[in-house]
Write a structure and sequence with these properties.
The complex is a heterotrimer of chains A (about 120), B (about 170) and C (about 625). Chain A has about 120 residues and is mainly alpha-helical. Chain A is built from four helices and no strands. Chain C is an alpha+beta fold. The chains are: A mainly alpha (about 120), B alpha/beta (about 170), C alpha+beta (about 625).
Chain lengths: ~120, ~170, ~625
């Protein structure tokens, strides 16, 4: 019985995968791109004219075989880093990405030591 | 003593944050693409509005080029138009004016130019707007001033104002 | 109307000042006679509530001589939304803030006296709370008065913003404000506790109920906001890490941490100073959130009309409150812990909760404010969006869930063994469930798998406790419900995230498209005029290819006139197992329409889980009578 289910699942996979894969990749990319004329939405979530154009451009780039990172680089070279919703890691954003972990570590040490001190 | 140090540290941190937030209140939060300044414009190819053949980078043969993205359906484009006509007249020899008609229909574009005048040496068309993405355009009108090496000197988002034309002229005279 | 409103505001102002003087007077005298304060307190709360009711009245009768009504209402607005417009704008919501500040002061004053709390403590709480009231009242009167008059009276109002006319949006601010503003009372209580050198345990007992109540309302407020975003904003998302959402989430984390540390404070008389810090932080975070949202400093979907001068005022208020907190804290802090505790004890694990909560809070705070700092300091513009928050926070769901399962079985003081036999059983069960999911549906990522295992672990653990209670009437704690709700929330969000499908395609009327499990036919387009807008309604027939069931969907494109806006209304079919979500937008200069179709499993259960969390919080007040629930 589980065999049959597995086979069915695999079949659906193969029919569906090409269609879905294409959708997933485009949307994945678009979810990380900011709609510049909207209030903080991603291109994937926007109906604006700008979003439609960018979506088309991204689809073209995917067809040309560019990787996600290359597409992001292209867009940020034209529109600035602001267009990327996941901040790239550079000298301006080290603090952004590492400070939470640093605070976590410091606070952990403080808690642990003050707890032990009381013993 | 140790507590005094802690207190001072915290107070300074708070003071710092509050100061930054205070300045942030007056900073301009509108989006701009000044990160493009000093970058080269991309290799481009646009069909022409009324002629056969394409416009490409090697058509830009004057010392400066002013690329203006416009459309017949764009109201602010009508407003800035007179400044473009004025720039064409006063800077005829030095500056090539390239108009890119953005997401428009040919007849409407031609009507626009016939009625209001044509300030451009060349008019390219970008019907789906995708070519303009290469220039970092997100909404029109936008205008870019490049030098003979096709490096971006100035970028304007929104309709040109009189101040902007002065900035352009000053830049050219430098 | 404007005049009477102002009169009552002035009365409130005067009584507030008098309360300040009288409390100082009583503190100095040390012989508390509450007669005057009692009277003043009653006058104060009556006056402020009256002024708020007057504002609501002005909206109901569409009195456009009041600027606030003129700017935010319209005769054509339905009554319910006229009323909710009273608090849906900056000035009105500020008036609601002040109402709640005073209301909580009033409640505290009465109940603290009934509980026979120390007089000095009560007086100082009243003092600090009324300083906050005074500061906000001055802010309102000077720069944000809802009762400013317009002469001559306009015939019609401006405010018919369609996006604001929604039931969830109408109740979401009041719910949140009870949370945000309610935290002011334990802010004042924390300061008072330090100044009067209160017995530490007493502090926990004094503010405990307020913490849970504000936490309850904060949870519901956030839920209402998410539901509104999901149904109204038309993208199918329910959480966007938008600055305004983040502003409501940060105090939630702080309340969470505070509630847990108070449990230890009450039981073991430790974590006093840390609880004080958390109590102070909660309200400070609320004010910070207000600042971020209303000052115009951030880009957000929420549209309070932004104004830098308001921002300056709120920044000053925030700065003042922080200074007071630092000053009082450092003047009265004393180190004298005595503890015979062990690392593997309940109290240490509750501290771990605090540790993680502060981490989450820090991530949200840093993510939200970093772009501001970067722009001011280095003139660089960056965006910090969902990918940042998800990357930092989601992995920590795993230790959170697992530790919650372990911690609730630990005893106080002792060196416990962390893993009990039951825990292993739950883990094994969870693995099995995961394998079943993987086989029957589809493969999921490693991270999601581990999260699912952890969530099921906590779910089984709490379900087991509930089952034991039902059989043996042994003690059930309110947190069993909240923790179960939390675990379910993570589970359903994870399932929703992994198994949602989204399809984008372009159609003209008459066309059909074939997707994996669904067939969608764009039957036709209708244009109609409704009350205050024109609408293009798409008629879509969606058929589930597996079950053969069919349903019609009617997504809309609405064109409103005042103010001129276009909105896209999704049509959502909410079912028990999944939601079907359809949106339509027009492609400019084209005959085609851009269609987005999503199937989103378990949406309903996401809302139910949050509701269960909230219920757990409030259940401690109600379940005491029924059997042994604590």
């Amino acid at each position: 019985m589980s065999r049959i289910i597995q086979i069915l699942v695999l079949q659906i996979f193969f029919i569906v995968l090409p269609l879905k894969a294409e959708n997933i990749t485009v949307n994945e990319v678009l979810k990380n791109i900011r709609c510049l004329v909207c209030q903080g939405q991603s291109i994937s979530d926007s109906n604006s004219d700008f979003a439609i154009t960018i979506r088309s451009v991204v689809e073209d780039k995917i067809d040309e075989g560019l990787s996600k990172q290359e597409i992001y680089n292209f867009l940020s070279s034209r529109y600035g880093d602001w267009i990327l919703l996941k901040p790239i890691l550079n000298k301006y954003t080290y603090l952004l990405w590492f400070l939470p972990y640093i605070l976590l570590a410091i606070l952990g040490i403080i808690f642990y030591r003050s707890f032990k001190k009381k013993m | 003593m140790e507590r005094l140090i802690k207190k001072i540290l915290i107070l300074s941190a708070v003071g710092f944050c509050v100061t930054v937030l205070y300045f942030a209140l007056n900073v301009d939060h509108t989006y701009n693409t000044k990160s493009l300044i000093n970058k080269t414009i991309p290799q481009f190819q646009f069909k022409q509005l009324n002629q056969d053949g394409l416009i490409e980078n090697n058509n830009l043969n004057k010392n400066f080029t002013l690329i203006n993205f416009w459309a017949s359906w764009c109201a602010p484009c009508k407003i800035e138009h007179k400044y473009l006509m004025e720039l064409k007249e006063s800077l005829e020899d030095e500056v090539l004016l390239l108009g890119i008609n953005f997401k428009d229909k040919k007849e409407n574009a031609n009507n626009f130019l016939t009625t209001l005048g044509n300030p451009y040496h060349y008019v390219g068309i970008d019907e789906d707007g995708k070519g303009s993405v290469d220039f970092g355009i997100y909404g029109i009108p936008e205008t870019i001033l490049v030098d003979q090496n096709q490096i971006i000197l100035l970028k304007f988002i929104g309709p040109l104002s009189e101040d902007d034309t002065i900035k352009i002229k000053n830049k050219i005279n430098e | 109307m404007a005049l009477s409103g102002n009169i009552f505001l002035v009365i409130t102002l005067l009584t507030t000042i008098l309360i300040l003087f009288e409390s100082i007077n009583q503190i100095i005298k040390s012989v508390a006679s509450y007669k005057i304060l009692d009277l003043l307190s009653k006058v104060q709360v009556t006056a402020i509530i009256t002024s708020f009711l007057l504002l609501i009245c002005a909206f109901i009768i569409s009195d456009f001589s009041v600027i606030n009504v003129y700017e935010n209402s319209h005769t054509a607005k339905p009554l319910f939304y006229k009323i909710s417009a009273a608090w849906g704008n900056h000035e009105g919501s500020l008036l609601l803030w002040i109402n709640l500040l005073i209301f909580f002061a009033f409640i505290f004053f009465r109940s603290a006296r009934k509980k026979n709390e120390e007089n000095k403590y009560i007086l100082w709480v009243l003092l600090f709370q009324n300083i906050i009231v005074l500061v906000f009242l001055l802010f309102l009167l000077i720069s944000s008065n809802p009762f400013l008059e317009l002469n001559p009276q306009p015939v019609e109002g401006l405010g018919l913003n369609p996006i604001l006319q929604d039931p969830a949006l109408a109740i979401h601010p009041p719910l949140l404000y009870v949370g945000f503003v309610g935290s002011s009372i334990y802010f004042s209580a924390a300061l008072s506790s330090l100044v009067t050198q209160q017995n530490k345990r007493q502090f926990a007992l004094s503010i405990k109920n307020y913490v849970f109540i504000t936490w309850f309302f904060q949870t519901l407020g956030i839920l209402a906001g998410s539901i509104w975003a999901y149904y109204e904003l038309g993208w199918g998302g329910f959480w966007f890490w938008d600055p305004v959402e983040n502003s409501s989430l940060m105090p939630w984390f702080a309340m969470n941490a505070l509630a847990h540390s108070l449990i230890v404070l009450e039981k073991k008389n430790i974590y006093y100073h840390w609880s004080i810090i958390l109590a102070l932080m909660t309200f400070l975070l609320s004010v910070t959130g207000t600042f971020l949202v209303r000052s115009g400093i951030l880009n957000s979907v929420h549209s309070f009309a932004n104004d830098p001068t308001r921002g300056l005022f709120i920044l000053l208020i925030l700065f003042t409150l922080i200074l007071i907190s630092i000053f009082v804290f450092f003047r009265h802090e004393k180190e004298n812990f005595l503890n015979n505790s062990h690392i593997k004890s309940r109290e240490f694990f509750l501290l771990i909760n605090n540790w993680l909560m502060v981490f989450f809070l820090a991530v949200v705070l840093i993510g939200t404010t970093y772009p501001i700092f970067l722009q001011v300091i280095s003139d660089q513009l960056i965006s910090v969006g969902p990918p940042y928050y998800n990357f930092l926070i989601v992995p920590f769901a795993i230790p959170m869930l697992l530790l919650m399962g372990l911690a609730t079985k630990l005893s106080w003081n002792q060196n416990n063994s962390l893993l009990k036999k039951n825990h292993l059983a739950y883990l094994v069960l969870s693995f099995l469930v995961l394998i079943i999911i993987n086989i029957t549906i589809q493969n999921i990522s490693f991270l999601s798998s581990v999260i699912f295992i952890s969530a099921f672990f906590l779910i089984f653990q709490n379900l087991h406790e509930i089952v034991i209670f039902l059989k043996t009437k042994k003690t059930l704690m309110n947190y069993h419900f909240s923790h179960l709700g939390f675990a379910l929330l993570i589970l359903f969000i994870g399932l929703n995230h992994n198994f949602s499908r989204e399809y984008n395609f372009n159609l003209t009327p008459g066309e059909k498209v074939d997707l994996d499990h669904y067939e969608i036919e764009f039957k036709n387009l209708q244009q109609t005029n409704r009350e205050n807008y024109n609408v293009l309604v798409g008629n879509f027939l969606i058929q589930n290819k597996k079950t053969g069931k069919e349903k019609m969907f009617f997504p809309e494109i609405r064109l409103y006139n005042n103010p001129q806006t276009i909105t896209y209304e999704a049509d959502i079919a909410t079912q028990v197992d999944l939601d079907l979500y359809l949106t339509m937008s027009n492609l400019p200069r084209s005959e085609f329409y851009s269609i987005k179709f999503q199937s989103k499993p378990f949406m309903l259960w996401i809302w139910v889980s949050v509701f269960l969390i909230a219920l757990g919080l409030i259940s401690k007040f109600f379940l005491r009578r029924y059997g042994k629930i604590d």
